[in-house]
Design a protein that fits this description.
alpha/beta, eight-stranded parallel β-barrel, seven-stranded mixed sheet, about 25% strand, binds ligand TNX
């Protein structure tokens, strides 16, 4: 009997089993079976078949190629299945073409060449699962699709034992599928970074752009300059002191971890601006050379590396040399954004340099700066990536432009022959709020809904085919001024899922309604992975004019119902009506009348909202205890304000 005959019988038997197992099982199974094919990002081609593959403790993972890399992919798949099911599948090398029933085959032999270096095909039948690809990276992506398929319904969405027959052929649209995590504004632990690498891999992303330096912290150990991490990695005082850094060994651990998940780690060292932390460590790097502190507030700060001193370039070159030793990435990101040039204007050495080189203005001086670094980085056999401002200085053709202020940089960059990464803020900035719910500061941050991210198109329509070929892909940055580690998931997910589909799936296969439907399944997978994706805050009380005076007074609200578990809590005070708003002095949480956590900083909430969020770490909660939120408030300009207190718990 041929395969089709068997699968028909298998399908029939399965129906009998389901019918015998009762309605509940039937409902669960059918959810699992249909849900298994709701993949994010959407594969290029999905042809459902008949029958089911039964995943059992006796299922074997068979590797047809005698390579260490494929063997470790086999072990990776076995580990992932064990995490979900507690089955420990044996990984075995096989020779010969025959596929034994009950096996999951990983192979790079006889793969469809049209699927390229990252493409794969996945064939599930009642008797086997075959993941084949030209390159191990493709096998890895086939495994990710399979992981999603087995997380589709039964057992709290962690694991379905029956996988529907299907033939999938898939490959990415873009080679740069990136996510940037800003670990300077808020430090993120090593384990957290690894967890993100896993979440990126699950969505077939392949670039982790690691924002390691900024005004608020230098986060990578440089052996030659120990002050960078001794003095430059912490800001604030007392309870508000914050920071941390990665040793070179830890960074190497991240690189290796990412490599095993086919992710390139692209490190970023910001220059010439966003340099306060470095200057706090070594004041001579700035024009004035005066001591200053690592910055603890957000915004665009004036401190720059001095472009007039040779010693600045010596420092940067030494830093980049150590960096390249840690990070094998072909690309090194050198920042380049938001360099306010006032200090260069006032600096005799910078002015002298401009005169000597015949530079007309300070933008040209940044061009000189970038070109010098670009040339140096090329001697290390790497290419620079820079934010779109680097275009102003006419860098070499090998420089990659990351367009963030819109898509103009992408168009200009590609027209000038540069490779381009598209990251336009209004579409992909994950520090922008998910909805207009009043929890975020007003100003630069505009609402960026899931649908808006999904509508993003990395290749501008006005490019010729040759120019369009220079668009490497897209990247969504998470800037973390307003996102300490516990709040990161809430900003990144589910929007990262939309970006992953934008850069993986061809435009003709992208459809918002279909994506939304698939996300209903995918949210359950994110739950199973412990992802604390965006959900709205809970209103826990309100204020009105009778609560507000011209001097600070406290307002108490009972939050016992909202504070059930330990963890990280974030409060937002949303102004609803009234010409005037409120000024907030501090906020606290009390347990049975005793204060257990307090956040003191000034915030305002009115037509303008800034700093109106208060964060609390709650280590324990006691059943039966009464919890109170206490806020110290006064009117800002008047007392006609009404507003709502919103609270969210973060895992
Ligand atoms: C602009 S994007 C910046 C970052 C901020 C971000 C906040 C870019 C290259 N520079 O320094 O964190 O806005 O949205």
């Amino acid at each position: 009997m041929g395969k089709t005959g068997w699968s028909l019988i298998a399908g029939f038997m399965c129906c009998l089993v389901l019918a015998a197992g009762g309605d509940k099982l039937m409902a669960q199974q059918s959810t699992g079976v249909t849900a298994a094919l709701e993949i994010v990002p959407q594969p290029v081609k999905v042809v459902p078949g008949k029958g089911l593959f039964a995943l059992k403790p006796s299922t074997v993972i068979a590797i047809t190629d005698d390579t260490v890399e494929l063997m470790s992919l086999g072990r990776y798949l076995s580990d992932q299945i064990r995490l979900l099911t507690e089955y420990t599948l044996e990984v075995r090398r096989t020779s010969g073409a025959a596929v034994a029933p009950g096996t999951i085959v990983l192979t790079t032999q006889g793969a469809d060449r049209t699927l390229g270096d990252e493409g794969y095909s996945l064939k599930v039948s009642w008797e086997s699962v075959i993941i084949s690809a030209q390159k191990p990276a493709g096998v890895f992506y086939g495994i990710q699709t399979f992981r999603q398929m087995i997380m589709s319904g039964d057992d709290s969405w962690r694991f379905s034992r029956s996988i529907p027959a299907v033939e999938i052929s898939d490959k990415p649209s873009y080679t740069w599928r990136g996510f940037q995590l800003d670990c300077s504004r808020h430090f993120m632990s090593l384990d957290f970074v690894k967890r993100y690498i896993d979440l990126l891999a699950y969505h077939k992303m392949n670039v982790f752009h690691w924002h390691l330096t900024d005004d608020q912290g230098w986060r990578i150990e440089i052996k030659r300059y120990p002050e960078l991490t001794r003095a430059g990695a912490f800001y604030g005082d007392g309870d508000n002191r914050h920071g941390g850094y990665y040793t070179q060994d830890e960074a190497r651990e991240i690189v290796a971890y990412a490599k095993s998940r086919y992710i390139t780690v692209v490190p970023e060292i910001e220059m010439p601006g966003h340099a306060t932390a470095a200057i706090a460590a070594y004041p001579e790097l700035s024009c004035a050379g005066k001591p200053l502190k690592v910055e603890s507030t957000w915004g665009i700060h004036p401190n720059l590396f001095c472009a007039g001193k040779e010693s600045t370039f010596e420092f940067i070159e030494n830093v980049l040399t150590e960096l390249c030793d840690i990070f094998p990435s072909p690309y090194i990101h050198i920042g380049g954004d938001e360099a306010v040039k006032d200090q260069w204007k006032a600096c005799p050495l910078c002015q002298k340099r401009m005169k000597e080189l015949g530079l007309k203005n300070e933008n040209e001086l940044q061009g000189y700066f970038t070109t010098r670094i670009d040339t140096f980085v090329q001697t290390l056999n790497r290419n620079i990536v820079g934010w779109d401002e680097i275009l102003e200085g006419g860098p070499s053709k090998t420089a990659v432009v990351q367009s963030w202020r819109g898509m103009e940089g992408a168009v200009e960059g590609a027209k000038k022959g540069h490779r381009v990464i598209s990251s336009p803020a209004p579409f992909v900035y994950l520090d922008f709020p998910n909805t207009e719910d009043g929890t975020n500061d007003t100003g630069w941050l505009k609402v960026t809904t899931l649908e808006k991210v999904y509508s993003f198109e990395p290749t501008p329509a006005e490019l010729t085919p040759a120019e369009a070929a220079l668009i490497l892909g897209g990247e969504c940055p998470l800037w973390t001024e307003r996102a300490p580690q516990p709040e990161v998931d809430h900003m990144v997910f589910p929007r990262l899922c939309a970006l992953a589909e934008v850069v993986w799936t061809p435009p003709e296969r992208r459809n918002w309604a279909d994506f939304s439907r698939r996300m209903e399944v995918h949210y359950r997978r994110l739950d199973a992975l412990g992802v604390d994706y965006f959900t709205p805050y809970t209103p826990v009380g309100s204020w009105d004019p009778k609560d507000i005076g011209n001097s600070f007074a406290t307002l108490d609200r009972d939050i016992t119902d909202a504070l059930r578990e330990p963890g990280h809590y974030r409060l937002a005070l949303r102004h609803d009506t009234g010409a005037n708003g409120v000024t907030i002095e501090w906020a606290a949480i009390l347990e049975n009348g005793r204060e257990m956590a307090r956040d003191t900083h000034e915030g305002v909430s009115g037509k303008r909202r800034a700093g109106h969020n208060y964060r609390f770490r709650v280590d324990t909660t006691r059943p039966g205890a009464r919890y109170t939120l206490r806020v110290s408030l006064r009117g800002d300009g008047g007392t006609d304000t009404k507003g709502t207190l919103l609270l969210r718990h973060f895992k």
